[in-house]
Design goal:
Peptide ABC transporter ATP-binding protein; Rossmann fold; ATP hydrolysis activity; binds adenosine-5'-diphosphate; 7 helices; globular; ATP-binding; single chain; about 220 residues; alpha/beta; four-stranded antiparallel sheet
Length: about 220
């Protein structure tokens, strides 16, 4: 069974004359351990697709199944629990909670899920990401690269099956972005499983196991390797 499957998945925003067809009906299969890069021009539907796959939005039609479980047949509460147990998210703007320390940000998803943090695992993860000396800092006391490394640790803290990242290096300068990306790829390989990344960076796409090129809400034929 594929890890993720979409059937005629589509998304329209707005009504009547203001309608935007952000995603046209899409059948897609993503296997376990894939590293999928989603590329395409701005406004082409990349974030829409990522949010639908990650259970953060609702489709206009069609469905998304994760190991056979229909994501949008669940109610909001069930889907939110499912997301916390199975998915990790990384955003361009880090989205850390400013009044919590790095460590508290990292363990927050576990606490919300009523799980006891696996301290050995979290220590290993922090060491891998080079943030073990920064765990008691607030996000505002950290550089952008450090904040994104904390966000990666948070995304991986619950040992998710799938990590979703929307332009994870978009707010970082080139060199720092490359370092953070290396760490993201290595940590997902080591501690997570499947990685789905939106990127404008051809270097990121080169490293992916497959590439999905979206233009105006449609997948370009032959773009997926
Ligand atoms: P990308 O991530 O490739 O930049 P998006 O998925 O954000 O593209 O957007 C695809 C299209 O849908 C764009 O035309 C965008 O303006 C539109 N869109 C995205 N989100 C919304 C929304 N919440 N309401 C209305 N239109 C939206
Ligand atoms: P990205 O950098 O990922 O392409 P965008 O700037 O396109 O992100 O969109 C950021 C957020 O704003 C997304 O969650 C998207 O759904 C929403 N959004 C994008 N376009 C619109 C729009 N025209 N109206 C309302 N929300 C939008």
């Amino acid at each position: 069974m594929p890890l993720i499957e979409t059937k005629q998945l589509a998304k329209k925003y707005g009504q009547d004359e203001t309608t935007v067809q952000a995603l046209y009906p899409l059948d897609l299969t993503i296997n376990e351990n894939e590293f999928l890069a989603i590329v395409g021009p701005s406004g082409s539907g990349k974030s829409t697709l990522l949010q639908l796959l990650g259970g953060l939005d609702t489709p206009s039609s069609g469905k998304v199944t994760i190991e056979g479980q229909d994501l949008y047949a669940m109610n909001e509460r069930e889907r939110s629990i499912f997301r916390r147990r199975n998915f990790g998210f990384i955003f361009q703007s880090f989205n850390l909670i400013p009044i919590l320390t790095a460590e508290e940000n990292i363990t927050m998803p576990l606490l919300l899920d009523g799980k006891k943090p696996d301290l050995t695992y979290l220590r290993e993860l922090s060491r891998k990401l080079g943030i073990e000396e920064r765990l008691h800092h607030l996000p505002g006391q950290l550089s952008g690269g450090q904040q994104q490394r904390v966000a990666i640790a948070r995304a991986l803290s619950g040992k998710p099956k799938i990590v979703f990242a929307d332009e994870p290096t978009g707010n970082l300068d080139t060199r720092i972005g490359e370092e953070v990306l290396d760490l993201l790829i290595e940590s997902v390989r080591e501690f997570g499983k499947t990685l789905i990344v939106i990127t404008h960076d051809p270097k990121v796409a080169e490293r992916a196991s497959s590439v999905l090129n979206i233009v105006d809400g449609r997948i370009m034929e032959g773009a997926r390797q």
